[in-house]
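Project standup — Tuesday

K.O.: blocked on the structure for the chain from last sprint. Re-posting the sequence here as requested.
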Amino acid sequence: MEESNFMHLKKDVIQKVDEKMLPEEELQDLAEFFKVFGDATRLKILYALLCSEMCVYDIAALLGMSQSAISHQLRVLKQMDLVKNRREGKTIFYSLADGHIVNILSQGQDHIEE
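H.V.: unblocked you, prediction finished:
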């Protein structure tokens, strides 16, 4: 028998899924967003900020890394709107941008602990 006899194209399912599929540009943005979570240093920073607002110096001390390396990662996190900052005198303090980030971290942790 031909292989095509075993294939069943479900046009209704394809159309339904296609209608709900995100536009290509949004899928690319989503891929970039999740790519940020693929770096252990950035995750450590996010988990630190989950506990407390912190400055670059304190994050660097906590993670045993240079301030320059931490600043670079914070810049990436800020560009993706995962962290925000505020200035107090000459010191800049970083915190998580919003509750969505807390949820993403929490759900990711729940998933790997299952």
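K.O.: great, moving the ticket to review. The beta strands are 54-55, 83-88, 91-96. The chain has a mean pLDDT of 92.
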